[in-house]
Amino acid sequence: MNKFVGYQNFKSAYLPLLMCLIAVNSHAMSDQLYIGETIYLNDPTVTDVVIGNDQIVKAKKVGNKGIALTGVAAGDTTLKVWNGNRYFTSEIHVYPSNVKKTLEDLQTALRDIPKLSIQLVGDNVLLQGKDLTLEEKERVDGYAHLFKNVVNFAKTKENNLQEKQKMIYLDVRIVEISTSSTKEIGIKWNTASVDGPKFGVLGDFKRSDIFTGSNHPLAEQIAPLAKISPFQTYFGLASFIDSKINLLQENGTAKIIARPLLSCKNGGNATFLSGGQIPYQSSGATGTPSIEFKDYGIKLDINPTISNDGIVAKILAEVSTIDQSVQVSGVPGFLTRRTETEFVVGQGQTLVLSGLVGAEKNGGESAVPGLGKIPLLGNLFKSKSNRIKQNELVFFVTPYVYENEFEMKLGGVGRDADGVVKSELGSGLIIPNDYKLKNEQTDETENKK
């Protein structure tokens, strides 16, 4: 309690002196410096001074006259000044440059542009405005280049129109992975940034070090495995997303179910449906019957928008199948797997959606003719089999931005995956580009002869 009273007494006695100092030096009132600036607090009663981080602000006592503060690096720190047994604390922010003067100079020079906003945001001066004329935009750009720590977001009418007309191109790969009930499918992610995957089959025939080299992060996991025969034992889907995609299968295949190439305008909507429709009868408010249709199959709905951080999009992936075991008025039900998310990626980076797992169970019975029907003993001549098949769909979505649809058609899209694998076989199997089938090798040999 005594400490609190002492502090109150200190405030009443010491703050008038601080206000005098503030009147002399306006910097002390705002507790702000910029790198290289030095301010002087004239107070001979100061006995000690401590800076929380002397890498940001240097403090030095000047004899018995006061203290000098110098901004060294951008950031925030705490200043404590003692006067005998009493002290006061102040937070100090150091700007990377004299942004306050920059703000004042820009506001003075560009005050005749009414659609331009000039604000101090953090350690930068932010210039914002839309529908500027070309002459105004040139002036703003010229002044912005004269100063440090200026972020220029000013745009002309033409800029806004071009922004709206930009096209977003979506390269989508839908891959189905089949596995038996005894296999494990794992997808392990790290939390670092996403760069986009590269695809390829991991096998003995692969000559490139990109998959089998000792420096690759997957090498330690792959080394203990048995030898890999093409498309028989293991199939790997390698990724450079700074995360791990570990899809190991035994005696299974991975197939590209669909590869839609979608496009839409900035802020528009792109949809894809691979399946069909089932008609059903419904009635409106008046009771009049009508026929409507329900979609089923693989459905993808993407709504992308271009932002300063990249491409922001909402994506809905859905897989539905007809369930004949459930029917209402002759209309079957549906088994649906759905995932929905919102993401931000850069142009050319890849988003991976997984987890749409389905299972099919099939059973059968075989018996020796005649002997299988013997009461009690017939089971000795019968065999039953149950098979569980699991399917997982993985969606790879890679967006690209084009100024217009004409540029999108002529510019071409550089796909990382195409540099590693090809999937033009009728079976949809993914194989490396440098892997040659037997018939291809035979054709080359005959041509050389």
From TrEMBL:
<feature type="signal peptide">
    <location>
        <begin position="1"/>
        <end position="28"/>
    </location>
</feature>
<feature type="domain" description="Pilus formation protein N-terminal">
    <location>
        <begin position="33"/>
        <end position="86"/>
    </location>
</feature>
<feature type="domain" description="Type II/III secretion system secretin-like">
    <location>
        <begin position="248"/>
        <end position="402"/>
    </location>
</feature>
<dbReference type="InterPro" id="IPR001775">
    <property type="entry name" value="GspD/PilQ"/>
</dbReference>
<dbReference type="GO" id="GO:0015627">
    <property type="term" value="C:type II protein secretion system complex"/>
</dbReference>
<dbReference type="GO" id="GO:0009306">
    <property type="term" value="P:protein secretion"/>
</dbReference>
<comment type="similarity">
    <text>Belongs to the bacterial secretin family.</text>
</comment>
<protein>
    <submittedName>
        <fullName>Uncharacterized protein</fullName>
    </submittedName>
</protein>
<dbReference type="Pfam" id="PF13629">
    <property type="entry name" value="T2SS-T3SS_pil_N"/>
</dbReference>
<dbReference type="Pfam" id="PF00263">
    <property type="entry name" value="Secretin"/>
</dbReference>
<dbReference type="InterPro" id="IPR004846">
    <property type="entry name" value="T2SS/T3SS_dom"/>
</dbReference>
<dbReference type="InterPro" id="IPR032789">
    <property type="entry name" value="T2SS-T3SS_pil_N"/>
</dbReference>
<keyword id="KW-0732">Signal</keyword>
<dbReference type="InterPro" id="IPR050810">
    <property type="entry name" value="Bact_Secretion_Sys_Channel"/>
</dbReference>
